[in-house]
Structure formats: structure tokens, C-alpha cells
Write a structure and sequence with these properties.
By secondary structure, the protein is α/β, with parallel strands linked by helices. The chain is built from seven helices and 16 strands. Helix content is 16%, strand content 21%. One of its GO terms (biological process) is one-carbon metabolic process.
Amino acid sequence: MELTFLCATLAAVSVSFVDGVGYMGVRPPSLKQCCYKDIDKAHFSYDNNLCEGPDNWCKVHPCWTTCASKKSQSPININTGLTRYKRYPRLKFEKILRRVLANVRNNGHAPYFEVHERYDDEITVRNVPERPRQKEYNFAQIHVQLGQDEKNGSEHSIDNVFKPMEAQVVFYDKDYEDVTDAKSKKRGLVVMSVMVEVYGQKPENDACGCDQETCTVRYARRLSALMEKYYEKVRRYPLASINPDFWTFLSLPKKCWYNRCGKTPTKEFIKNRCEKEEPDRRPFRVFEGITPLDVLPYDTNRFYTYSGSLTSPPCYETVQWIVYKCPIKVSAKAFKMLQLVEDSHLKPLPQLGTRRPQQKMNVPVYRSYLK
């Protein structure tokens, strides 16, 4: 009888993890596994009904305790009436007209474009707001976030107005090897955020903020083409070919053994415990290449900027956000292809969305233009 029960349990666990593991971004809740010792097994969900949802990210692994910080977490609502004007020099890009080699991946949470680095082809930016003027940052990634609600998919909002999507262009400090190396370092990252509308759909609010100054909205033809073509290639996340060890899961704790939520791990701890090894899966090559120009709006002179964080674990507070006032548009097909991408549970992304709930932070937000 005991043997029969054990075999049945093993089979049930095995099937559950074949269906739901992949990147292990969302865990089957029946296991009641809420925290990990091994960073390579740690994963998170956008579902707040699960113990690994956004409200509990800080408890999943000691490397993610910063997610509960009350200092400068992202994303936020930008209240334009409370922003402070500050004159900034123009962003200085190098080689931005060049299209660099890239790959597209599905990490089990969302798809993203990633620069395939070659040192002679780096696109860089300097004159970043609130950073030393001559400090250079390398172009690394393009992400497009969406939500459960088609009209409210952006992570940031401007005067509580959301857009269907938010494109995020990631740069990292050139002094470091890559994004992984730079993301935990002070002032290691710069992210340029652009609100994204859907061509043919009338936005809820044509204005870019409470000052009622309208924008000339650019149709992002290149970004649309990339989304239409390559999101199809990574629609389904490749599931792992092996089952997790049953006995390992039996021994997992039902409750977390620590709670340092809100505290940032030390540099030594991050170096020794927090370097997550990505699975060795072959990405799809983006033959056309990518450039920040695929995403940037017509008007790059008007933006809001603040010091914030990554919007997913480990939530390090190392990001200078540049949130552009004016949006862009992509095709309805591009939006649809993003909606069809599946997470590691083979569920379409809109089921949970890929946006972190906004954080109520009292951080200074500056604007680059006079009202």
C-alpha cells in the first residue's frame, strides 16, 4: 500500500514539473515551496496569489531581499506636478546608427532582445542624467512589458496614465563585463523607458502628462517588424528534458528560514551566492540586428528621470531610469505576437502579465524640460 502511494506520488510530481518547470519561473503551488537556498533553482512569479508573487519576492532567496526596500524601488507613477526641472546636456550616443548583432530569448517570464557583443560594434551613451558626464554605458538589451489588461500594460505611468506596453532599453556601465556583472554595482545600469501604444487603437489620453502638451507619436516600424518576426520564434519556452529529483523536493522547507526583507546583500554575499547561471539554451539570432533607435521616440529631449531599481528580482537599486514623455506605436500584429508568447507554464503572457506592481516611493523625479 505504501509503495503504491509512493509510486503514485512520484508520478504526480513528475508530471507536474514536466508541465510547469521550464525556466521554473512559476512553481506549481501544490508543493508549497516558498524559498530556496540555491540561487540557480530560485524563481519568481507575477501572481500575488502565490507565495513567490511580487509581495514575497524578498523571501524567495537571500539574494532578493532588496525587493522589499523602501528606498528607491521601481516602477513608480510619475506625478508630473511634483517633478523638478533640471537642465541636462543631450544624451551623447556613439555608433547608434549601426545595427548590432543580437539574439532573442524567452527566459520563461518574457521574451527579450539581447546584444551579441563584439567590442568593435558597441553602441554607447554618455551624458546620462545624474551620472558623471563622461561615464559611458553599453547598449545591452530591449524588453517590452505588458499586462493582464490590454490598455494597462506599462510598468511606469505618467500622471496615473498607463499604456498597453512599455519598451525598456538597457545599458550597463562600460567598466564592467556585462549586464550580469554591472547590475549589482552602484550606478551600474541605465534604462530608457518608452511608453508603447498600438497602431489603430485610440489611446485613453492623447496627452503625455497633466500639462496637456501633446506629442508627435512615432510609428516604430523596425520594432514592429522585430516583434512580429521573432516573438513567433520564441513563443514557446523550451521545457527541460529532465525531471527534478523527487527526494529533493520532499526535503524543501515549508517555511522560509530567514527574513531579511528590505536589506541589501553585501558585495561579498552577492559575489559568492547570487551569480545565477542561465541554462545553456540556444537563442535565435536576430539577423537584422538591433539599435536603441528601434525604440526611441521622436522627441528625445523631454523625459523624466529618477534613481530606481530593477523591476524584477534581485531588484537591485542601481538603475538610473529615463522615462520618455512621448510614446511610440507598434503594429497590432506586433502586440498580438507578444501576447501569444508563453511562459514556462505554457500560458500566454497576458494571463499574469510581465509587470511589477508600482512601488510607492518618495524619490525625487526630475524633468528635462520647462513647462
